[in-house]
Amino acid sequence: MHDILINWTPQETRVAIIENGAVQDLHIERTLERGLVGNVYLGKVARVLPGMQSAFIDVGLERAAFLHVADLHGGGHHAKHDVAVQMPIERQVFEGQALMVQVIKDPIGTKGARLSTQVSIAGRMLVFLPQDTHIGISQKIGSAELRDQLRSRMNKLTATTDGSPTGGFILRTNAEDASDEELADDIAYLRKAWGAIRAKGMNQPPGTLLHEDLNLAQRVLRDLATESTQTIRIDSQLQFDALKSFGDAYTPGSAAKLALYKGERPIFDLYGIEEEIARALARRVDLKSGGYLIIDQTEALTTVDVNTGGFVGARNFDDTIFKTNLEAAGAIARQLRLRNLGGIIIVDFIDMVRDEHQAAVLAEFKKQLSRDRTKVTVSGFTQLGLVEMTRKRTRESLAHMLCQPCPTCEGRGQVKTARSVCYDILREILREARQFNPKEFRVVASAAVVEMLLDEESQHLAGLSDFIGKPISLSTEPSFSPEQYDIVLM
């Protein structure tokens, strides 16, 4: 069983899932960073451009949005000499026409949003295509037998009383293990949402937002709340009322668990969540036993290294390693969820001599990963003793969302020593002395570099000055980073 805490402010919504008194999952959404993709508008055709086979649509945004002929639902194809030919856009839309459109690409720079007239509404396990009739299956559900079973179940669940289907559906990857009841709930929610969009589109002027993709707080009720959820507590009266109204209409089961938090302490202080977020951004994660993890996130993959540290509690070294690895298995699974790390992940457990220890650690690791909502695949130990796994990327990792690369080291995690920078400076002076003939060279650098040039490297500096026959002066610039310097020709 678990609880869900929602901390809401006008600029940011944060959600924590608490299990056994510890944070198991974190979700953060910032108001200014929410995109428009998925939003449905009632637009008005402003201009048709036959030469570009596109049209500009006014949907009430700062810039007109862009609709290409390829994104028109149905495509306007007709047969000519037994070959399908796309009908020109000028024969399908006209200036002043009202169109229901959906944003498929956010505005970038001076370009407006890109639109489609093919509306799709995402649910927890399904995507609803109200203008189609087919049942599609995610390509990541690989088993042909399972795909046929899912398609057969969906045909029964979506059929109306007269046996005819209404609207098409695409089953997402997480529908693979869904029950008929869960699929039916998702179908009902999506059809209700589409009904609200259509009703609003009937009596609103062009430029109206008909449907906005759910915000994080609403997705808690739709996606995160399950039968195992005991309570959903939120610390804003305004958002509690809005969520209650949304939940009563679309997810009554989840709405019944909603509660308003009225405590004096900030809601995230209840379980030390602020400290947990800070720890989730650190490279090192300490284990209770005294061991620790080192987590490094790179562009291509994430590596997790397990170390015994100060743990010497077991009778012999093999038991010490085994117990550290067992504890690390649970900690790693939790850190993957907290940090939302995706893609290829390599785990370097401490080398174990006994095969039964390896098997037990791998079994514990898989058990802990089975609680993850995101699709995870574990390959087992390689010949080098590493565990290879993948975790589906669903959103930006916590570090990418909350942090940016260090402007000093530019993301490398380290900077040159003061001595290395001194030698760079000496080489650069020699290079410039061969090209230019100034009266003097002035070095502007950080305090640590200038201090070293005046002290430990003063002999080398003096020797270079004699060699080039020019004086070299030094100046400290407090705002310079350790690697930054300028050589001024006087």
Structural description of this entry:
The protein has twelve helices and 26 strands. With 490 residues, the protein is α+β, with helices and mostly antiparallel strands. Strand 4 (40-49) and strand 5 form a beta hairpin. Helix 1 packs across helix 2, helix 3 (216-224) crosses helix 4 (237-250) and helix 7 (317-339) runs parallel beside helix 8 (355-369). The longest helix has 23 residues, at 180-202.
Annotation keywords:
12 helices; alpha+beta; single chain; 6-stranded antiparallel beta sheet; 490 residues; 6-stranded mixed beta sheet
Number of strands: 26
What fraction of the residues are assigned to beta strands by DSSP?
25-35%
Distance between the termini: 72 Å
What's the Cα radius of gyration? 30 Å
Q: Which runs of at least 5 residues are low in confidence (pLDDT < 50)? A: none
Concise account of the structure shown:
The chain has 490 residues and is α+β, with helices and mostly antiparallel strands. Helices cover 31% and strands 28% of the residues. The model has no long low-confidence stretch (mean pLDDT 88).
Describe how the helices and strands are arranged.
Blueprint: E1 2-9, E2 12-19, E3 22-30, E4 40-49, E5 54-58, E6 65-68, E7 77-80, E8 83-86, E9 98-105, E10 114-116, E11 121-122, E12 126-129, E13 135-137, H1 144-158, E14 168-171, H2 180-202, E15 208-211, H3 216-224, E16 229-234, H4 237-250, H5 252-255, E17 258-260, H6 273-280, E18 284-286, E19 292-297, E20 301-307, H7 317-339, E21 343-348, H8 355-369, E22 376-381, E23 387-391, H9 398-402, H10 418-435, E24 441-445, H11 447-454, H12 458-468, E25 472-476, E26 485-489
Parallel strand pairs: 1-16, 13-14, 16-17, 20-21, 24-25
Antiparallel strand pairs: 1-2, 2-3, 4-5, 4-9, 4-15, 5-6, 7-8, 9-10, 11-12, 12-14, 18-19, 19-20, 21-23, 22-23, 24-26
